[in-house]
């Protein structure tokens, strides 16, 4: 969860103006290209006020995305522990967050992400800078393989959110967490640490013609 | 692909009125509860005209959804062949359709599906009646397990579409089809025919505390 202070300081209009300027800047220039200074200028405020309201650039980005959780807190939690059960832990934590009241905000974020090219670009920046960059130093993966592995994990978890919480197709929508951890955990585990370059049944079956898969 | 006749017959306004009435009826009453007669009445036309324009109720539904492909054609194609390579074939076919010009229509359909509760309900009817119902009689699955297995497949394929074609996160967005078939095919294969009730590494590692996963 994103930790919030008890009250939000300052003028709500100013806050909203900063968030709107931040969304535009992050979508148009990317996370790295968007500076607090430029965002403050676009919002017509002093950069010190942006820091005062939102703290770091990361926190400003999370607020601009209405993110229901802070990947900076969730990811280390998910990746701590035995490497061979990381898949289960990741699915369990994902379901715990999305099945909580934060899930509604997650649905809203996913809805917004998908709605236009512009919001998709903003969400892509979020995935790359807030998720992929944080995961990379914490996992022991070959650097040339890690990005594909992480985006494969993202594809399964995003699809889980889509089918369970947005489209709500049964029985997946109401399946107990344990059922989904057992079903999807090994998928995530394999995407992280398994062999992704060959099929799991490499031996031709009797009678199978070589190359018939291409047919 | 949905086969289209060379020209669309009749008045485009009438066609659009029928499609709008169909969307409302399918979302509000579900596929089974929506009748061609009631759709025709809502659109102010004769039911015979709906049949004349769209053929069957299935085809009307596909047109109402702007579906880029007819699951009635795609699914039997994907499920024909050796059962132990169905995962690879399904991913391959999925990528072929989405990487083709039809993919843009797929993105539009997914965007629309996610945008509101109402369109999500419409898309859920699509998944259940056009995909799950067609898959069930073609696969040799225990009836009590089949629905969860199929929705798990849907979650991975929907997430693949989301990350590759809508959010476009690299390197998955540009990965060659063969890479993704090798990576994701075994996931689909396991969801269809594997054991989903226990972890793939059931043996505790030396030093692992029983129950520590819950901690």
In short:
With 215 residues, the first copy, chain A, is mainly alpha-helical. Chain A is built from ten helices and no strands.
Describe the biggest sheet of chain A? Answer: none
Strand content of chain A: under 5%
Instruction: Kindly state the percentage of residues in helix of chain A.
Output: 55-70%
The CA-CA distance between the termini of chain A, in Å, is 50 Å
Number of strands of chain A: 0
C-alpha geometry of chain A: globular
What is the helix tally of chain A? 10
Q: Mean pLDDT of chain A, nearest integer?
A: 86
- Compute the CA-based radius of gyration of chain A: 20 Å
Largest interface by residue count?
A: A-B, 57 and 56 residues
Query: Oligomeric state of the chains?
Result: homodimer
Descriptive report:
- The structure is a homodimer of 215-residue chains.
- Chain A is mainly alpha-helical and 215 residues long.
- The first copy, chain A, has helices spanning 12-33, 36-43, 47-54, 57-64, 71-79, 86-99, 102-115, 117-135, 146-166, 177-193.
- In chain A, helix 2 (36-43) crosses helix 3, helix 7 (102-115) packs across helix 8 (117-135) and helix 7 packs across helix 9 (146-166).
- The longest helix of chain A has 22 residues, at 12-33.
- The radius of gyration of chain A is 20 Å and the shape is globular.
